[in-house]
Amino acid sequence: MQDTNFVPMLVAVPLLGAFLIPLLSKLWKGFADLVGNLVGVILLGFAIYGVVTLSTGTPGIVYKMGGWLPPVGITLVYDSLAALVVLVINLVALPALLFSTRYLDPYTGRWKYYTLFMLLLAGLNGIAISGDMFNMFVFIEISAVASYALVAFGTGAEELEAGFKYMVMGEVGGLSLLFAIAMLYAKTSTLNMADMSQALASMGHTPFFWFVLATLLVGFAIKMAMVPFHSWLPDAHLSAPAPVSAMLSGVFVKVLGIYAMARVVFNVFGLSRPTAPGFFNMLVGFGLVSILVGGLLAINQKNYKRLLAYSTVSQIGYILLGFGIGNYWGVVGALFHVIGHAATKGLLFLASRSIERATGSRELGEIGGLEKSMPVTAWSYILGTMSLAGAPPFAGFISKLLIILGAVASKMYWLAIVAALFSTVTLGYLVRVISKVFIGRKDVVPTPAAESPPMILLALIMLVAIALVFGVAFQPVLDNIVQPAAEALFGGLAYARLVLGG
């Protein structure tokens, strides 16, 4: 008998945490840390359990809310693609929550922070398993509103300005998505994604089909911070608490932007490179622009958090590039990069906050020589840099190699060369951070600093381990997690057969 009850728990558990934290924190303020981290452990356990369940040959789990059959009832769909995304969300969330226990020491609104974080997790997990378009939109808005408040959590002028700018851009994207969903409902008379995919397939590639898809893509492009819709991301990262930056860059832009786009393009609109080469060439174009613009903007940054934010814009370009290439290696590489970049960028943002906590600065010219005084933080940052730049044996190397193989397999040799060259650009601007911040030089007086508390170091070590294990053991990860997720996308309208039967 297949156990499906864990699927709604991915949303119910963090919602319960968001309810309990304000109540229990009135009794003892430490309950916020306890409940928040306990929720993180439970969700990661569910995520691993789900991957193991699907690895036994189960094509997917369709959970019918209230027993109502689709397309009438609300369904939660947990297939291989959802399993990968849920795993990524909670692999980054647990270290971020552990890091938060000491990060929040200077703040008084601890329970408010954890309540918002629980809502963020509920929204992100809900997006991954939602089976209809409107519920996906609702979960997008839950996670987005929580993230607006978290970006402005410090309540200083800088944080409030960044949070407001992010909110305005985010809601423009949200309105674009809602408008497209309304048009789809008016045309297909359904919100269930599986049912909608069959209606769109019978309609053909009409002007309406492309207009609605373009409207959806504008919303997803804003959420993923794709060039030219990226302006909100650097300010948000600069002002947000470090664990929130780790979630924004490592998870948020991928779930609300990349995952939602891929699910809609492949499984709802039923597109593939053979059927829509022009559309996939457009994805390649946007991916290249994001890689180039994000990388070039990162080079000249003096603030290392802003540098990491522009780096995220560039790395999102690699994921778009893989999907745009559209063949097996390209899509598998894009999905692998979702995992590798999530762990690596989460690690770099947390390590950056560890540095700022010890030195009181995040400007490259103001600190230096921290390798001996902060060895764990220093080596965590260095190893994260190697993974992000695509150095073996880390996950970042495997994902970029697969994307380059996809370009070569499609005979896009120039694309493979550009992707490889900009990996060296990534290495260049990150090595500049290492040389200025960590490596001791005779002409620089080492900045006085002490290593961060054990809980912060544990979070860093966990993310280093994830980036390393997923790189060294890439074959099992590829076989059991990434390849099945790619097959769920390539299956196109097979998603409808999973949900509706037959």
Description:
It is a single chain. The protein has 502 residues and is mostly helical. It has one domain. 75% of the residues lie in helices and 2% in strands. The protein is built from 19 helices and 2 strands. Strands 1-2 form a two-stranded antiparallel ribbon. The model has no long low-confidence stretch (mean pLDDT 89).
Question: Secondary structure elements and their pairing?
Answer:
Elements: H1 6-24, H2 30-55, E1 60-64, E2 75-79, H3 80-103, H4 110-129, H5 133-151, H6 157-188, H7 193-203, H8 207-224, H9 232-239, H10 242-268, H11 277-299, H12 304-325, H13 328-359, H14 375-389, H15 395-409, H16 413-437, H17 454-472, H18 474-490, H19 494-500
Antiparallel strand pairs: 1-2
Helix pairs in contact: 1-2, 1-4, 2-3, 2-4, 3-4, 3-10, 3-13, 3-17, 3-18, 4-5, 4-10, 5-6, 5-10, 6-8, 6-9, 7-19, 8-10, 9-12, 10-12, 10-13, 11-12, 11-16, 12-13, 12-15, 12-16, 13-14, 13-15, 13-17, 13-18, 14-16, 14-17, 15-16, 15-17
Features:
mainly alpha, 19 helices, 2% strand, two-stranded antiparallel ribbon, 75% helix, 502 residues, 2 strands
> pLDDT under 50 segments (min length 5)?
none
Please tell me what the overall shape is.
Answer: globular
| Number of extended strands | 2
The largest sheet, given as strand count, sense and whether it forms a barrel, is: 2 strands, antiparallel
Structural class: mainly alpha
